[in-house]
């Protein structure tokens, strides 16, 4: 397959890039950090969305080395922003199931953080509930080790996974990210609104903060403020942007 051989060459040929989507504090509109989202500049095809290549990359075993690059690149970028005087900016990267199982994960994370002077709680990782399914004990052990390295953790796509509640009390996470599916109808559908309110109250009881993903409208934003959601992410504030645009974005916020 052309896609497969192209994907195998992409890492060595430096065709990957991270884009960054801001996370905005609900109380004051402050930028709390960014989520790093992978982009592939495939020769002859333009920019390819991860939806089109992540499943194949995972199947081919390429997401371990690609994911390691993502972690290193995020740390390098944080160091660059810091050295440019933008301050310490928190960045969250997405972890794949194979990465969570990889024996090299912890050492790689520690090496990336050390060589770029990343402090505890600056780097964040987003994991999904479905990543717990194969071997929950192993996954929880790895998450605890990541936490021990000073990595913040959040549960991505919360509420869509299998057996969410069972793991909530055992996962060493800081944040729940409410899946976009609950946010879409929050200003119109009372069931979505009640689900969000319930999940937010539950998270707060457990000492976790809550991010709403996919916030696109002012009506959704205010429905979420009313239900005490802590942080927002979505096109209402900004789509994911190139690293070079982050400085201007932050300037526009002050
Ligand atoms: O912007 P968006 O199209 O970027 O992302 C689509 C999907 O790809 C999302 O589910 C997102 O979590 C996933 N994704 C984006 N970047 C990465 C990455 O670096 N690693 C992994 N494992 N998934 C990613
Ligand atoms: O699975 P994960 O939550 O990491 O996926 C993030 C995905 O959501 C990325 O593809 C990102 O580009 C996309 N995204 C971010 N903000 C919005 C939004 O406001 N609306 C929609 N429809 N997608 C969004
Ligand atoms: Na994510
Ligand atoms: Mn998500």
SSE arrangement:
Blueprint: H1 2-10, E1 16-25, E2 31-42, E3 46-48, H2 50-59, H3 63-86, E4 91-94, H4 97-101, H5 105-115, E5 123-128, H6 136-148, E6 152-158, H7 164-168, E7 175-178, H8 180-184, H9 190-205, E8 209-212, H10 218-226, E9 231-232, E10 241-242, H11 246-253
Parallel strand pairs: 2-4, 4-5, 5-6, 6-7, 7-8, 8-9
Antiparallel strand pairs: 1-2, 1-9, 1-10, 2-3
Helix pairs in contact: 3-5
Residues 156-157, 177, 213 line the site of manganese (II) ion.
Protein name: EAL domain-containing protein
Domain EAL: 1-254
Describe the protein.
Residues 1-254 form the EAL domain. This is EAL domain-containing protein. It is a single chain. The protein has 254 residues and is of the alpha/beta class. It has a single domain, classed as Alpha-Beta Barrel (TIM Barrel). 45% of the residues lie in helices and 21% in strands. It has helices at residues 2-10, 50-59, 63-86, 97-101, 105-115, 136-148, 164-168, 180-184, 190-205, 218-226, 246-253, and strands at residues 16-25, 31-42, 46-48, 91-94, 123-128, 152-158, 175-178, 209-212, 231-232, 241-242. It has an eight-stranded mixed barrel, surrounded by five helices. α3 (63-86) runs parallel beside α5 (105-115). The relative contact order is 0.13. The model has no long low-confidence stretch (mean pLDDT 95). The chain binds guanosine-5'-monophosphate (2 copies), sodium ion and manganese (II) ion.
Give me some keywords for this one.
alpha/beta, single chain, 11 helices, binds guanosine-5'-monophosphate, 254 residues, binds manganese (II) ion, TIM Barrel, eight-stranded mixed β-barrel, EAL domain-containing protein, binds sodium ion
């Amino acid at each position: 397959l052309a896609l497969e051989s192209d994907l195998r060459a992409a890492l060595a040929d430096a065709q990957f890039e991270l884009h960054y989507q801001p996370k905005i504090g609900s109380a004051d509109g402050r930028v709390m950090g960014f989520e790093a989202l992978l982009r592939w500049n495939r020769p002859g095809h333009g920019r390819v969305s991860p939806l089109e290549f992540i499943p194949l990359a995972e199947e081919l075993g390429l997401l371990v080395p690609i994911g390691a690059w993502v972690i290193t690149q995020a740390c390098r970028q944080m160091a660059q922003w810091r050295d440019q005087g933008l301050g310490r900016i928190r960045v969250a990267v997405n972890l794949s199931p194979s990465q969570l199982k990889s024996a090299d994960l912890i050492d790689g994370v520690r090496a990336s953080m050390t060589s770029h002077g990343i402090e505890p709680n600056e780097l964040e990782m987003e994991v999904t509930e479905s990543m717990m399914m194969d071997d929950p004990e192993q996954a929880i052990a790895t998450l605890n080790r990541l936490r021990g390295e000073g990595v913040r953790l959040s549960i991505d796509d919360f509420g869509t996974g299998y057996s969410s509640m069972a793991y909530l009390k055992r996962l060493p996470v800081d944040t729940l990210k409410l899946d976009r599916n609950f946010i879409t109808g929050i200003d119109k559908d009372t069931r979505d609104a009640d689900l969000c309110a319930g999940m937010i109250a539950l998270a707060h009881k457990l000492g976790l903060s809550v991010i709403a993903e996919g916030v696109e409208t002012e009506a959704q934003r205010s429905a979420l403020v009313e239900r005490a959601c802590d942080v927002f992410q979505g096109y209402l504030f900004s789509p994911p942007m190139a690293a070079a645009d982050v400085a201007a974005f932050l300037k526009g916020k002050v």
